[in-house]
Design a protein that fits this description.
Length: 243
């Protein structure tokens, strides 16, 4: 057995079979994210990468009781389609994929599934999980990992007092702590990009988020925020397993 590997897609069928036979696997975390624009400096995968990171670290805390299911790397991102590179699923397709993954896990005997979300646009999935749970007869819960942060904590740690925001101080700090290779400041010239943002509601916020990221993001605060989310998700999963 691979020591402390909890990511399902990294395991072999033998590993999974043996853990199940020994009754070791009690629950699964399914990360949901997006592939979408994250301003001028952050990689498209940010929401997927951050949800998967939180899920992975949380599952390691609970090893060997919890596995991480393969992250859903494309989410509901119609609102960002004006930015090239964004990929989007129609909500019904996104829900259907999530359901099928939960059903697959159930068929292998996993009865507690926590969906660890990293993209605000996927929020409507939260309204589906009660039905998923009822249909499959198992315990499925959904939450974005930033539900771990109280308003007081955000006010204390974030100079912009805004979280999650979009590709702003929080997400950029998280990336600097967890996967700094996804932060690309070199060559960024926001003014020269001459963005002609169509979304009226988002147009005034894009430069604010950009400045929040550029002027206030640090790996240090990203580390603190990531660790709080990891503990919160581990705790949530633990409660589900024990219920
Ligand atoms: Zn994001």
């Amino acid at each position: 057995m691979i020591v402390e590997e909890v990511r399902l897609w990294k395991l072999t069928r033998r590993h999974v079979r043996e853990r199940l036979e020994q009754g070791l696997i009690k629950g699964a975390i399914l990360p949901t994210g997006s592939t979408e624009q994250h301003n001028e400096h952050l990689a498209m995968e940010h929401d997927t990468a951050s949800a998967a990171y939180v899920a992975h670290q949380a599952a390691l805390q609970l090893y060997p009781q919890v596995v991480v299911a393969t992250p859903m790397a494309v989410g509901i991102s119609e609102h960002w389609m004006e930015f090239p590179g964004t990929l989007s699923l129609r909500p019904e397709n996104f829900f259907a994929v999530a359901y099928d993954i939960c059903e697959s896990l159930k068929r292998h005997g996993i009865e507690h599934i926590f969906i660890c979300n990293g993209h605000a646009g996927n929020g409507p999935l939260g309204n589906q999980v009660e039905e998923f749970s009822a249909k499959l007869g198992i315990d499925i819960q959904f939450s974005s990992y930033w539900a771990a942060y109280s308003k007081d904590l955000v006010d204390e740690l974030m100079a912009t007092k805004d979280c999650p925001a979009h590709a702003a101080e929080f997400e950029t700090s998280f990336a600097m702590a967890a996967f700094p290779e996804n932060v690309h400041w070199k060559g960024v010239d926001y003014e020269a990009a001459n963005l002609d943002i169509q979304s009226e509601s988002y147009r005034p916020r894009d430069p604010v988020y950009f400045e929040g990221a550029r002027d206030h993001a640090t790996g240090k605060k990203g580390r603190v925020m990531a660790d709080i989310a990891i503990d919160w998700v581990a705790n949530k999963m633990q409660e589900m397993i024990e219920s």
